[in-house]
């Protein structure tokens, strides 16, 4: 799923709403700049890896293996963003950020990594491409915002490309989960049956099905929230440009 | 000379009665002669904070009218917004005014401007708790009798061969019956109401968890505790003691509020040994509640119960810390040794 629309730094919000918050201190800002630069670089590596593998193979099948390790590393690294919110150096909600990051991490590890049979699916490519483009733009957006030098192009890209990338990513994710279902049912992956000493049971197959269903109420809400954000941010950005 | 009055402005009847008396006798303090008040009537306008549109204009409002009375008047103009649903503020972004605040004591001129916020549908506390507690009571019993479509058809209306399953049903039901009785006869609630959305959320939590843990305990494939009767009996003892303790604390807290004054008092241990926990913690009712659920967890040896106990403990710890800090702020001589919920630890 696409990452939260709220910016990592004051200047991102100054375009929309005057914030009374103090914002991160100098040390925190330096750390955040480094973090965002590293993440931008990481996702660029994944992007380049995809392109090179495609050119080498001549087909878009089975590209997952060429970027498996950096994908896992950098997507898991995003867990730090929950910490940033919790500590307060980033003015986002811990719950919202946590939810978004965990859903990505869930898809990376609990579905794609765990069910090896889906790694050849084309749906993987669908969401990996969506994630890669989104994250490169998002992390460079944060980097430039922190340095108080945000090119309009990046802001535009961040608040516009999601219109295509978000549904693309969701489609890829749903298709991947769906592809994993028969294998989960057959092997009883991550499932616990009765009877047992702890009197507990868990059916991963049912859980994955519920996760898929949960996209129905959640996706439109997030999507329209992003559309509203777009109106606010790009509208005030236009006025800002005109006043120059 | 009218005697000094200590009136609890608990409801609108008391408020209007109080105002009538004040009109007749004047506002008197202890020993002061009653003054003849020359009445300057106030005007009250109520605005929408976003549009600044005037929703209501009240003239000839008595200067010693309370916010509660004004809310009543506003309700007459807008029947759908009953008083407990109204939040009146002096400033659109300011604090909500309390119902017992008096108009002339507020920083307003003779024309007072208030901003109105709709708090949404409200439900009285008693109704809230009845819903929240009756649900788990009946849901658990439902699973206990194993109606068809919950478990496999051949198990419909059968009963478990294990006595611990029946014991667990008795304990769980006792716990919620006790809570219902306390809600009706013991507790006195400070705020009048709760927003509807919160109740839906709370009910989903309580009812959902009750269904989840009842499903496993009453399941045909339920496994009784590993250490057999010894485990069950110790757990039952813990559960019973904690239920008694919890009830004792509720009674003690209720007696604190008993004499009608609205001021908070420090709770102290009484002759009842269960209340001696007050020596060590600010909120022994939460301590006992956590203990009772721990007992139930050990008795049933069921992971969902353990999870429910853990979540409840976390929530109660948050509440206990809040209450503890309020006590410390309000009372300079608050006992040092007391911790919020676990003696010496938490």
TrEMBL record, chain A:
Membrane topology: Multi-pass membrane protein
Keywords: Endoplasmic reticulum, Fatty acid biosynthesis, Fatty acid metabolism, Lipid biosynthesis, Lipid metabolism, Lyase, Membrane, Transmembrane, Transmembrane helix
Superkingdom of origin: Eukaryota
Keyword Transmembrane recorded: yes
A cellular component term, taken from the record's GO annotations: endoplasmic reticulum membrane
Major subcellular site: endoplasmic reticulum
Swiss-Prot/TrEMBL catalytic activity: (3R)-hydroxyhexadecanoyl-CoA = (2E)-hexadecenoyl-CoA + H2O; a very-long-chain (3R)-3-hydroxyacyl-CoA = a very-long-chain (2E)-enoyl-CoA + H2O
InterPro entries: Tyr_Pase-like_PTPLA
Keyword Lipid metabolism: yes
TM annotation in the entry: 30-55, 76-99, 159-184, 204-224
Coiled coil: none
GO biological process: fatty acid elongation; sphingolipid biosynthetic process; very long-chain fatty acid biosynthetic process
GO molecular function terms attached to this record: very-long-chain (3R)-3-hydroxyacyl-CoA dehydratase activity
Family note: Belongs to the very long-chain fatty acids dehydratase HACD family.
Function noted in UniProt: Catalyzes the third of the four reactions of the long-chain fatty acids elongation cycle. This endoplasmic reticulum-bound enzymatic process, allows the addition of two carbons to the chain of long- and very long-chain fatty acids/VLCFAs per cycle. This enzyme catalyzes the dehydration of the 3-hydroxyacyl-CoA intermediate into trans-2,3-enoyl-CoA, within each cycle of fatty acid elongation. Thereby, it participates to the production of VLCFAs of different chain lengths that are involved in multiple biological processes as precursors of membrane lipids and lipid mediators.
Name of the molecule in the record: Very-long-chain (3R)-3-hydroxyacyl-CoA dehydratase
């Amino acid at each position: 799923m696409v990452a939260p629309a709220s910016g990592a730094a004051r200047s991102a919000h100054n375009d929309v709403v005057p914030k009374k918050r103090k914002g991160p201190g100098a040390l925190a800002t330096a750390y955040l700049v480094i973090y965002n630069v590293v993440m931008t670089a990481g996702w660029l590596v994944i992007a380049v890896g995809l392109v090179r593998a495609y050119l080498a193979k001549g087909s878009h099948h089975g590209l997952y293996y060429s970027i498996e390790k950096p994908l896992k590393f950098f997507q898991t690294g995003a867990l730090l963003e929950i910490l940033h919110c919790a500590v307060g150096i980033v003015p986002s909600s811990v719950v919202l950020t946590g939810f978004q990051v965990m859903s990505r991490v869930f898809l990376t590890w609990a579905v794609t990594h765990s069910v090896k049979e889906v790694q050849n699916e084309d749906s993987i490519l669908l969401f990996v491409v969506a994630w890669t483009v989104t994250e490169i733009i998002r992390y460079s957006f944060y980097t430039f915002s922190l340095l108080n030098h945000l090119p309009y192009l990046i802001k535009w890209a961040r608040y516009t490309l999601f219109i295509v990338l978000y549904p693309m990513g969701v489609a890829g994710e749903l298709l991947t989960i769906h592809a994993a279902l028969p294998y989960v049912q057959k092997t009883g992956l991550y499932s616990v049956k009765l009877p047992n000493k702890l009197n507990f049971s868990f059916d991963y197959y049912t859980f994955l099905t519920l996760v898929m269903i949960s996209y129905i109420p959640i996706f439109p809400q997030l999507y329209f929230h992003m559309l509203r954000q777009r109106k606010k941010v790009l509208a005030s950005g236009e006025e800002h440009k005109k006043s120059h | 000379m009218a005697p000094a009055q200590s009136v609890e402005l608990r409801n609108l009847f008391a408020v209007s009665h109080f105002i009538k008396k004040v009109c007749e006798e004047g506002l008197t303090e202890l020993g002061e002669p009653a003054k003849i008040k020359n009445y300057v009537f106030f005007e009250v306008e109520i605005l929408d904070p976003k549009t600044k549109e005037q929703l209501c204009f009240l003239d000839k409002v008595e200067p010693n009218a309370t916010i509660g009375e004004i809310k009543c008047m506003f309700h007459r103009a807008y029947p759908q917004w009953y008083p407990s649903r109204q939040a009146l503020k002096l400033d659109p972004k300011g604090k909500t005014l309390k119902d017992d605040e008096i108009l002339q004591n507020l920083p307003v001129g003779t024309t007072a401007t208030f901003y109105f916020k709709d708090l949404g549908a409200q439900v009285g506390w008693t109704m809230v708790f009845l819903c929240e507690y009756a649900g788990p009571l009946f849901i658990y019993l439902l699973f206990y009798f194993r109606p068809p479509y919950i478990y496999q058809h051949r198990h419909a209306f059968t009963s478990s061969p294990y006595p611990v399953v029946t014991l667990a049903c008795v304990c769980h039901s006792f716990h919620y019956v006790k809570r219902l009785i306390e809600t009706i006869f013991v507790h006195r609630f400070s705020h009048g109401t709760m927003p509807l959305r919160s109740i839906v959320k709370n009910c989903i939590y309580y009812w959902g968890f009750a269904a989840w843990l009842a499903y496993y305990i009453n399941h045909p494939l339920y496994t009784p505790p590993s250490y057999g009767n010894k485990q069950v009996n110790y757990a039952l003892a813990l559960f019973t003691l904690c239920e008694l303790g919890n009830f004792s604390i509720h009674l003690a807290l209720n007696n604190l509020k008993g004499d009608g004054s609205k001021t908070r008092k420090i709770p102290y241990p009484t002759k009842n040994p269960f209340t001696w926990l007050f020596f060590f913690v600010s909120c022994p009712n939460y301590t006992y509640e956590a203990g009772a659920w721990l007992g139930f967890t050990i008795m049933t040896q069921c992971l969902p119960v353990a999870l429910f106990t853990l979540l409840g403990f976390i929530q109660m710890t948050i509440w206990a810390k809040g209450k503890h800090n309020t006590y410390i702020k309000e009372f300079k001589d608050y006992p040092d040794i007391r911790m919020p919920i676990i003696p010496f630890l938490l």
